[in-house]
Design a protein that fits this description.
The chain has 18 helices and 15 strands. With about 450 residues, it is α/β, with parallel strands linked by helices.
C-alpha cells in the first residue's frame, strides 16, 4: 500500500508509525510542506486535515480514547503548544508510568486560546501518528468551577483535578467561631493517632482550626465529585490543596482524608503543599531533609488511610526532589509538569532564530508584571542581560533561572502577539523541538523510575 500511495502522491511522506488497517481501508498520516494529513483508503485515498482528524480516529480506534490510571504511578505531560506530544510519547516509551498526555488548566486554556477538546484532539492525533497504543489520560487541571468541569466532561476527559484553593482560609488572618464548627469538633475531637513515632490527639481547638481552614474547600470538592459522578462512571479524581501559602500538616492530611472518606468521595490522589518552594520552571528551593521528613510522615498517614496517590504539582524540573519522592513513596504517586515543555519550544527558537528569540524575550520582559500575577516565581527581569543573549550558548541561556521562569509564564502573551510566526518556526523545525522535549522529559522520568 505504501508504494502504491507514494506513486500516486510522490510529494507526500508517509509517517510509517501511523500505518494501520481497519476493515478494508488503511489509515495513516502523510506530510507535505510541513502540513500533516490523515489519509484513509486503499487504492484511492481521502485526505483529512489534522484539525478534523481526531473525531474520525477516536471513533475508529478504541485505544485512542483516554482512560483512567487508577493507582498506577502516573506522569502529567502538559502541552501548551499542541505539538509537544510527540516528544512526550518518545520520553514515555519503555517507562512504567501511565501517561496523562492531555493535561491543561482553565488558566492555560484562557491564555493559549484553546479548548479542552482541542487539547485532547491534538493528543489523539499525535498518539495515532507515533503509534502509541498504551493508553493515556486527559486531565482537566486545577478546575475551580462546575462550568469548567462540564466543559471537560463534554470533551471526554477522564482525570479531574479539583482546586479549592480559593476556599481555603488562613486561620492566622481571621478569627473563627468554635460554635459554628461544633459538628466537626464533636466528630473528631479526642481522636488520637500514632504514625510510627509521630503521635497527636485532636483537641477542640485543633479540629476547629482545621475545619475553619478546609471545610468550605471540602464542600466544593464534594460538590465537584457529585457533579462528575452523575455524568461519568470511571474517572480519576484528584484533590489539590497545594496552591496556598499553608503547608499541609500531618493533622491537616488526616482531617482532609477522613472528611473525604466520610463523604464517600472516591478520590484517586491528593496534592499537598509541601515545605519549601516549588517555583515554576526551576529546581526545588528548600531543605531536602525537611522535605523528606514531611513526605515520610505523609506516606505513613497514607498507609493507614489509603489507597490513594500522593501528587507532586509544579513538578517540572524538580530534579533534586525526584529521588526522594520515588524512594519514600515507591508506588502510587503522580507527578505533574507543564511549562517545562513550553520552555523547550523557546529553546528551539533560540537555536534556529536567535533574533526572533530575543524579540520574544523582550516581549516577555515587557509583560512580566501581568504574566507573573498568578504564578509562584522569584525571577527578576532586571537580571536579564538581553545583549548578552545574542551570542550566548543556548544551554547557558536556559540554565539561567530568570530566563527559565520568565519564559515559563509568558506563553499567553507570546502566543497572542507572535503565535503565527512561532508556530511556523516550530513546525519547520519540529524534529528539533521533539528532540528537546524528549531529552528533557526523559530526564524527569528516569529520576522517578
Amino acid at each position: 500500500m505504501s508504494s502504491a500511495f507514494s506513486k500516486q502522491y510522490p510529494d507526500f511522506k508517509i509517517i510509517e508509525t501511523s500505518l494501520r488497517k481497519h476493515n478494508d481501508d488503511y489509515y495513516f498520516v502523510a506530510e507535505k510542506n510541513n502540513k500533516m494529513y490523515l489519509v484513509i483508503g486503499n487504492k484511492s485515498f481521502q485526505f483529512i486535515e489534522k484539525e478534523k482528524a481526531s473525531d474520525i480516529l477516536k471513533n475508529t480506534f478504541s485505544f485512542l480514547l483516554p482512560s483512567s490510571s487508577g493507582y498506577k504511578n502516573s506522569f502529567g505531560f502538559g502541552d501548551r503548544t499542541g505539538i509537544a506530544t510527540p516528544g512526550h510519547i518518545m520520553a514515555a516509551k519503555g517507562s512504567k508510568f501511565f501517561p496523562v498526555f492531555a493535561q491543561q488548566s482553565a488558566r492555560e486554556l484562557e491564555r493559549t486560546k484553546r479548548t479542552f477538546k482541542q487539547v485532547l484532539d491534538d493528543v489523539i492525533f499525535w498518539c495515532f501518528t507515533y503509534g502509541w497504543t498504551g493508553g493515556f489520560g486527559a486531565d482537566a487541571d486545577h478546575a475551580k468551577s462546575l462550568d469548567i468541569l462540564d466543559q471537560a466532561i463534554d470533551a471526554g476527559y477522564t482525570f479531574f483535578t479539583i482546586d479549592p484553593s480559593d476556599k481555603i482560609k488562613n486561620p492566622v488572618d481571621m478569627e473563627f467561631n468554635h460554635e459554628t464548627l461544633s459538628e466537626y469538633v464533636k466528630r473528631y475531637s479526642g481522636m488520637s493517632f500514632d504514625f510510627g513515632g509521630f503521635s497527636f490527639t485532636f483537641t477542640d481547638d485543633t479540629v476547629a482550626e482545621l475545619a475553619f481552614t478546609y471545610a468550605e474547600a471540602i464542600d466544593f470538592v464534594q460538590q465537584s465529585y457529585d457533579f462528575i459522578s452523575e455524568r461519568k462512571k470511571d474517572f480519576d479524581f484528584e484533590v489539590s490543596v497545594d496552591e496556598t501559602k499553608i503547608s499541609t500538616t500531618a493533622q491537616a492530611h488526616v482531617f482532609i482524608v477522613m472528611e473525604l472518606l466520610r463523604r464517600n468521595i472516591k478520590f484517586t490522589s491528593i496534592a499537598f503543599r509541601f515545605p519549601g518552594r516549588f517555583e515554576k520552571g526551576i529546581d526545588y528551593i528548600g531543605d531536602i531533609k525537611v522535605f523528606e521528613k514531611e513526605l515520610i510522615l505523609h506516606q505513613k498517614i497514607r498507609e493507614k488511610f489509603g489507597p490513594y496517590k500522593i501528587s507532586l504539582h509544579s513538578g517540572s524540573d524538580k530534579f533534586s526532589v525526584y529521588p526522594v519522592f520515588k524512594e519514600v513513596l515507591n508506588d502510587s504517586f503522580h507527578v505533574k509538569t507543564s511549562g517545562t515543555s513550553w520552555i523547550q519550544a523557546l529553546k528551539t527558537i533560540a537555536v534556529v532564530d536567535r533574533k526572533f528569540f530575543i524579540e520574544l524575550i523582550l516581549d516577555s520582559l515587557k509583560n512580566f508584571e501581568k504574566n507573573s500575577a498568578s504564578y509562584e516565581i522569584s525571577a527578576n527581569p532586571m537580571n536579564v542581560d538581553v545583549e548578552k543573549l545574542e551570542n550566548e550558548n543556548v544551554d547557558e541561556i536556559f540554565n539561567d533561572k530568570n530566563i527559565r521562569q520568565i519564559v515559563h509564564i509568558s506563553y499567553g502573551t507570546i502566543l497572542s502577539n507572535y503565535g503565527e510566526k512561532l508556530y511556523q518556526e516550530l513546525e519547520i523545525n519540529l524534529p528539533l523541538y521533539i528532540q528537546f522535549v524528549e531529552q528533557h522529559i526523559r530526564k524527569h522520568i528516569q529520576l522517578l523510575s
